[in-house]
Design a protein that fits this description.
222 residues
Length: 222
């Protein structure tokens, strides 16, 4: 009788242990297993100031001269622009640019047509300080419209880390493309710039960036 009892107890234990081994993991464990591992961290930009003659395009101290292209263009995902004293790298204010979820292949564009100077002859880079307050790194490029036909010169994209990105360089001398994506050797109609815009590329989640100290740097005089 004792042998039968111990045999039955052994069988029940074995079935119990087998059931535990085959049971699905708890919801919390399953989610953690599905989370991406070893994501590459994007370090915020902190460039030294390039050599040359620096000219201020906008320090956001006087007024808000920028607008969200998404307010007038259906397939753009910018929402709003405003001026705030929450953050700055020069002066007291910054621009605050808000955007919705951006699908792959689309953009959120923030544009300014009220430029203090239209002649950008000799400009080699455009600089900006950008505080990425979003939850993820962002990819941004700059687009210059110039001449009577508003010819487009688009810079190569730059990746922004989360947090403060200082002296972000958008190269105006190399890697430029036109509206169709074809390479252009230099900034088109540099002496007659009509508008400048910053575009956040998709795929990106909704968020906000703060911008300050937008400048151009011209070739140093010899």
């Amino acid at each position: 009788m004792k042998q039968f009892f111990f045999a039955a107890l052994f069988l029940v234990s074995a079935v119990f242990l087998a059931g535990c081994a085959s049971a699905p993991p708890a919801a919390g464990n399953q989610e953690s297993r599905n989370e991406p591992k070893n994501e590459k961290r994007v370090i915020p930009i902190n460039n030294p100031l390039p050599d040359g003659i620096t000219g201020l395009i906008d320090g956001f101290e006087d007024d808000n001269f920028w607008y969200a292209l998404g307010t007038s263009k259906k397939d753009d995902y910018s929402i709003d622009t405003e001026v705030s004293d929450e953050w700055s790298t020069s002066g007291e204010n910054c621009g605050v640019w808000t955007f919705a979820n951006i699908p792959e292949g689309a953009a959120a564009t923030f544009l300014c047509e009220s430029l203090p100077a239209r002649d950008w002859s000799g400009a080699t880079v455009l600089l900006a300080d950008i505080n990425n307050t979003s939850r993820e790194p962002l990819i941004m490029h700059v687009e210059i419209q110039s001449g009577p036909s508003h010819a487009v010169s688009r810079t190569a994209p730059v990746q922004l880390g989360i947090g403060e990105n200082t002296n972000v360089i958008f190269d105006l001398s190399h890697g430029l493309t036109d509206e169709s994506g074809s390479s252009v050797p230099f900034l088109t109609d540099a002496d007659d710039v009509r508008a400048v815009s910053f575009a956040i590329e998709g795929k990106s989640r909704a968020g906000t960036v703060q911008a300050d100290s937008i400048r151009i740097v011209r070739k140093p005089s010899k």
